[in-house]
Amino acid sequence: MNIRMLLSAAIVLVLAISSLPLLDPKYFLSWKPRVSTVADLIVRNGVIYTSDDSLLFADSMAVGNGRVLRVGNYSFVQELADYRTKELDLGGKIVVPGFIDSHVHFIYGGLQMAQVELRGVNKKEDFIKRIKDAVKSSKQGSWILGGGWNNDLWGGDLPSASWIDDFTQNNPVWLSRMDGHMGLANSVALKLAGVTKYSKDPPGGTIMRTASGEPTGLLIDSAKKLVGSQIPEDSVDDRREALLRASNLALSRGVTTVVDVGRYLPGGSSDLSWVDFSDVYQWADTLLKMKVRVCLFFPMETWSHLADLIKRTGLALSQWLYLGGVKAFADGSLGSNSALFYEPYVDDPENHGLLVTDAEVLLNLTLKSDLSGLQVAIHAIGDRANDLILDMYSLVASTNGMRDRRFRIEHAQQLASGTPGRFGKQGVIASVQPDHILDDAESAGRKLGKDRAEKESYLFKSLLDGNALVAMGSDWPVADINPLSGIKTALTRRPPTWEKSWIPSECISLEDALKGYTIAAARASFLEKQVGSLSPGKFADFVILSADSWEEFAEEASASVEATYVSGVQAYP
Hints:
By secondary structure, this protein is an alpha/beta fold. It is 33% helix and 20% strand. The strands form four sheets. Strands 8-15-16-17-18-19-20-21 form an eight-stranded parallel β-sheet. Helix 7 packs across helix 8 (272-286), helix 10 (359-371) crosses helix 11 (383-400) and helix 13 packs across helix 14 (450-456). The radius of gyration is 26 Å and the shape is globular. Residues 87-572 form the Amidohydrolase domain. Keywords: Signal.
């Protein structure tokens, strides 16, 4: 070919390209990155549960470029192998999709791992000892922070500042209850915050008091900000280390994706989620330090900030980081007697709980968030709070018109008669935490009465029977981040010291529980095209379990995590 012919061909090509509208999106919608047809890894000789109804079980899987290429029998999968392909013989072990924890406070949990650990403490004396030990190793004047205590474990008596004042005269102390809706301050911290017998309860919060009106040290929901505002902010380095700690823990439990609802709690600052986004998540993503995939929810009062960001960036910032939606609170928690009920608490007859956010304010924020296209998630635990949010969601949907909005209720814990069926009819997702049963099975009857507790507590089976999408998680650090434990609890509803199930009619099947931590959890956050099942084209996130047969695993989900893979690469151990 001579020079003249080459020039002529080039001119024709330039003219053809120039005739296309510049960067018209329609010319790019069908473009897909070139995918290798050669597998990097073949996983074989196992029981692979895919969470994909088109092929629920297989014995082999091919992985390439971080994604699932094929799932099926070995001969079918092996067609994609060449001399570069590695093979992993499972020896009959079970493989499941990487677990998705649908509700965590990820950085908050990572920070708490470095504080005084009070989870599981079942004696008043041990509670006091742990604080006393922390004082001995702390500098005078420094804050002593901790969390995870559950007064129900030592009989129900609430702690007070008087328990710890004698040996904390030189240190302010703040200790969060396991649910995050109540905390204990010592007298030094109360003095710094200016909390006295004359202080008024803030809207949506309570200062617990003695019979004479003196503060006991316990602050509930929005009242926590009185002390919280005095605690020095965690440094950027501390928060980055917290992310890495949390990620390593998650991977050890088989969790490859989390929905992080942030450090924002009633009484906290709505800025925390945003500074964590910029200081921690974007830093980790940019420097390739992310280890698990994270879908972020932000305080609903900042909806316009998130809507503007999504317009600029889209929902997926990378394969690791996703912008989920906005979250708000309707009520408090059962353990703190601040969940909102129709009937009063049996152990507190004058108390129906708290409406943490004004109903009109919550409605207006939800209308605006939904109209902007954001996914909305609202915390509701008490029966009245859940009905209130379902009513509100119905009003918002009819006002703003039809779309795939996937409203969520976080916890959906106590449901009145007829309420479970409303979730399916309205298309509202129930984001639940099975392991909370282990904490509430004993205490719910004392707080609500046995009959009421057994009619409306953790109605997973009723929700599924009503065709609700049920996504599962831990609420870590409220409960441990441990899907296998959550699956076992959902199957058995039996606390460790119990011989019988609590409300056995609400036990669910192994498959429903697995889907709650995989494909249902993915759909609950619009992530089903990327994760949630071992389907061709999705990320090759999977977990190898210790069980040698499906029958063994089905026996109360008895297994442990042997290895966790993210994008086809071993991430744990």
